[in-house]
Amino acid sequence: MKEFKPTDYTLECVATGREFADEGWTLSDRECKKPSLVRTKYAVKQINVKPDSFGLYKFCDWLPVKRMLKGSSAPVTYKSKNLAAHLGLKNLYITFNGYNPAIGANMTTCSFKETEAYSVCARADENCDKVLVVASAGNTARAFAKVCSDNNIKLLLSVPADNLDALWFEKPLNPCVKLISCEKGGDYFDAIHLSDLALRSPMFYAEGGAKNVARRDGMATTVLSAVTTIGRIPDYYFQAVGSGTGAIAAWEANMRLIEDGRFGSNTMKLMVSQNAPFVPMYDAWRADSREMLPYDENKARRDVEIIDAKVLSNRKPPYGICGGLYDALKATGGDVLVATNAQARKAKQLFHELEGIDIYSAAGVATASLVKAVADGRIDPEATVMLNITGAGEELFKRDKELWYLKPSHVFSLTPDADDVVVKVEALFA
């Protein structure tokens, strides 16, 4: 293992500003009286980017990790020529998360969810006997499964049955990784509910989602990649969002980079987008509401069935929580945009033609939003724009490979019995 020294850091409650020590897996400030994220405050104020051989851990100065895990890759940022010319943008930079060895991109799960998985799992105690629990709409599960399988970390995944085709791998996984599922017709929120029931057992501990600083700081490496490549903080940040965690992470990285002092004092406008008709955060933002608006459960499930980008289907995202997406958008002068399936598909094709690689539907949503924002005159042609391509290269990676799929050990109803869930998941790791 390469020379590695964990960075000293403390945690800070966004709501109160209280600073305190991380007890190892702190997800919130127990003294805070209202829902709030906590943030890392690193002792290292100017980031020293390590060699590419460190993988994701080249950014370890600003990652709350105890060790380096094997197999990681960092996001790759490059200046676009073809897409930029098509859009009339002088300074369009693409931060690529996926598989495209021609540009040095080697995320074999083809998703930026690797950035959070390698960070979260390296935050965990190496000798922890408990089982990590992750709920996912697909890509996050695949990333955590790979990382945990390669590094012998016990993991329980909860994924909706309709999304199981996302759990492909180039080889069988270590049996330390187990999968449960909610039946067909369920969505990401149902998978979260199922994982919450499993967490009633003391054998398991929650990954934490957006509340886990390691998840956010791992995702923040997309911005660290962009800024250290460009040499300055961009003017605009484009990304499709399901929970908004990636955009929250981008905002937090932006603030650290301003404090670093070498990349300017610019605040990126967060231009995040959802896949219509599933647009709960768009609706809340348009109403200038910190709280999510009512969303009929059955309609939400139907809308999820319609959208191509299933990974963007979080019904209860960390939108209004203190330090969440609502605050990030307000602080950055950002906006929530939408793209239909048709627009995202067209953008995916455009990206493939101009940049030479396939991208995921979520990245297509982000690209479509950028195309429309430019067409509407919202982006100065001279502005520095970061487009976060959150998943790409799957077609290239799968070429000439015989894939292996992870199958669920148990499939539960959408209204599972809590005791039954606990008994069955405990037996998986007995």
Describe the structure.
- The longest helix is centred in the middle third of the chain and has 16 residues, at 245-260.
- The protein is globular.
- A 6-stranded mixed beta sheet has the order 4-5-16-13-14-15, sandwiched between helices. It has a 5-stranded parallel beta sheet with strand order 12-8-9-11-18, sandwiched between helices.
- It starts with 8 loop residues before the first strand and ends with a helix.
- It has helices at residues 82-87, 113-123, 139-151, 188-198, 213-219, 221-230, 245-260, 280-286, 297-306, 325-332, 341-355, 361-375, 394-398, 418-428, and strands spanning 9-13, 19-20, 38-42, 76-79, 91-96, 99-100, 105-106, 131-135, 155-160, 168-169, 177-182, 204-206, 236-240, 269-275, 335-339, 384-389, 404-405, 410-412.
- It is α/β, with parallel strands linked by helices and 430 residues long.
- Helix content is 34%, strand content 18%.
- The model has no long low-confidence stretch (mean pLDDT 96).
- The chain folds into 2 domains: 76-110 and 214-397, Rossmann fold, CATH 3.40.50; 131-202 and 402-430, Rossmann fold (3-Layer(aba) Sandwich), CATH 3.40.50.1100.
- It contains 14 helices and 18 strands.
Topology:
Elements: E1 9-13, E2 19-20, E3 38-42, E4 76-79, H1 82-87, E5 91-96, E6 99-100, E7 105-106, H2 113-123, E8 131-135, H3 139-151, E9 155-160, E10 168-169, E11 177-182, H4 188-198, E12 204-206, H5 213-219, H6 221-230, E13 236-240, H7 245-260, E14 269-275, H8 280-286, H9 297-306, H10 325-332, E15 335-339, H11 341-355, H12 361-375, E16 384-389, H13 394-398, E17 404-405, E18 410-412, H14 418-428
Parallel strand pairs: 5-16, 8-9, 8-12, 9-11, 11-18, 13-14, 13-16, 14-15
Antiparallel strand pairs: 1-2, 1-3, 4-5, 6-7, 10-17
